[in-house]
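Field: sequence (string)
Field: structure_tokens (string)

Example rows 1 and 2, in order.
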Amino acid sequence: MPRSHFSRRRSGSSRRRGPKRPQKTTVLIVGEGKETERNYFDQLKRDEPTRRHFDITVKRGKGGSRQQIAQFAVDRKNNIDATYDQVWCVMDTEGPKEIDAMRRALELLNANSITPALSNPAFEVWVLAHFEKTGTGFLDCDQVIEKLNGPWKNHFSADYDKADQRIYRRLSTFTDLAIENAKWVHEHHHDGLDKCILDCNSATDVYRLVGMLRAPSD
């Protein structure tokens, strides 16, 4: 057997493969907010061990109505150029005037196996949960921010800003408390975790999405 052939066989057989990397779970998060939700989840997805276990895409839902945002999530999920293990749609209920529109949007999401993550009436209820438990009802986002400004100013020496690009970084040390607070309010203040957030003012189940992303199983 020629020596060169023997050498090639030895070098090939001596290669050792490293440990196989676990396959990441692909997640699409569609949010309705121009900045707040996108900034929050864009930062969360870079955390360890989240980024080691998840490949997360964050998109802003296009359209002004609840149903248009839900339809955007459906279209993204059904795009043949992209496949996701999970699709979540982060939306605000926006108060009693939007209830019928929200129910239609939820029906559309459910029909397409997309999981909603709702805040009633606004995403800032989730932000507020980082500081306290409250099931107090709010008419709109402005009322939530008025309540939020107190603890926010105490911790960060400024009023809350919806366009804050460091929102997740500011809140990250309080995230476990926020999950606990939001879950407690949903379960105990609103008679059970099965109750739709649409019927719980104020409440949020964003804790389900954030809790999943922060506590992946190895």
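Row 2 begins here:
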Amino acid sequence: MYRLNNSARDYLLKAARSTIEAYLRSGARPVPDPPAARELLQKRGAFVTLYLRGRLRGCVGYVWPLTPLYRAVPECAVSAAVEDARFRPLSLKELPDTEIELSALSGLEEAGGVADVLVGTHGLLVSQGDRRGLLLPKVAVEGGWTAEQFLEQTCLKAGLSRQAWKNGATVERFTATVFREV
């Protein structure tokens, strides 16, 4: 499982909040300076989840390691605040009541089926053709799902049949280090 120390976690949480605030004030996305911590310079997938007064308010990220973590988190934070199509853009007035949760992802590895999926540890990416569905590890726990139900729900999120994971869809798993503001 991919891990981050407390200093790295604090850095990322502060970067996420300050970048959202800067964007809401000016419309510009500031680019953070590279940190000294090597673990933040690694390319990692990341998701930022926002909660407004305890309710989901946005969640955006990417599973592939496209950019260093110190840049991925602020990018995803702004996107979660203003680009998640399920919600209207976050306002500056709402920001103080918004809690930020971050998920720093491990790399992807192939998962063959139920025996390769540990609920609460693994997140899933199911793909077939141009369809993809991703669910973070906590989603299965929150749903009270078995590994098979988790696979089925990830297939449904991709717009595939429940059984697509048995019928040729590619199933990949990952772990996530999840932490939030206190």
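free_text_note (row 2): The first strand starts at residue 46 and ends at 52.
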